[in-house]
């Protein structure tokens, strides 16, 4: 029986197995879909499917660098932090980062369909399925981002053995150790304080208006809770609102944040960068940053590990 692409696609979607494994399974079973599923199960390829409903919120981030102008950051998730310490898993994450820095893909679907650099007979997804079977936990390549500097440098920083990874792109006409160290210091700032924007002018009007609504509601509630004789008029509340919004923007905008290593405790990141530029007779500015934190935004299940082990021992899972 001729094995069609549609048949391979159907088997792949139902089992999570790689394309080549699905084609082989269908070939071996003469196109019988149920028999092909059994074939995959018997050969251990369906281990990944059994874990599909679990949440992978641990894992690692990693960075791969080509040179001063090209780098990529990836996040690969596992179910437990224990697996994140596994050498095979770590090697796989390193390989994914290398794949990303050499990739031209613009989204995850295209990236997962790429030929795996370490074995071009497989796709990235095939490699993921294989390592999942070896590790025996649900694994997920969650995201990647490649950054190419057009007029400057890219400096990486990895914190906490891969818990957080940061890439900072800086525009500069001078590249030396002093400039690189300064940009790395900024990357450490991004890792520690998690800004959302480079500068206040980057903040959208939509975001500003949304925050104004929240801050106004907070201010009005606080005002209503005051004794009647001490309540503030509307114009005073609006002035307070502007002050609170500006304070918030200083916390979420990198250039306006207080530089964590400032000796006077007042110097902002923007002022620090300007001082480094002056000292090196250079033009220097932060263009953008990318910050990946493991498990960020993933809702984790609150599971009782001892109870789960007990269930497995009793054959109830």
Automatic annotation (TrEMBL):
Function in brief: Associates with the EF-Tu.GDP complex and induces the exchange of GDP to GTP. It remains bound to the aminoacyl-tRNA.EF-Tu.GTP complex up to the GTP hydrolysis stage on the ribosome.
Molecular function terms from GO: translation elongation factor activity
Domain Translation elongation factor EFTs/EF1B dimerisation positions: 71-296
InterPro entries named among the record's database cross-references: EF-Ts_dimer_sf (IPR036402), Transl_elong_EFTs/EF1B (IPR001816), Transl_elong_EFTs/EF1B_dimer (IPR014039), Transl_elong_Ts_CS (IPR018101), UBA-like_sf (IPR009060)
Pfam families: EF_TS (PF00889)
Lineage: Bacteria, Bacillati, Bacillota, Clostridia, Lachnospirales
Region Involved in Mg(2+) ion dislocation from EF-Tu, annotated ranges: 80-83
Keywords assigned by UniProt, alphabetized: Cytoplasm, Elongation factor, Protein biosynthesis
Intracellular or extracellular location(s): Cytoplasm
Gene Ontology terms: cellular component: cytoplasm
Protein name as it appears in the record: Elongation factor Ts
Family, per entry: Belongs to the EF-Ts family.
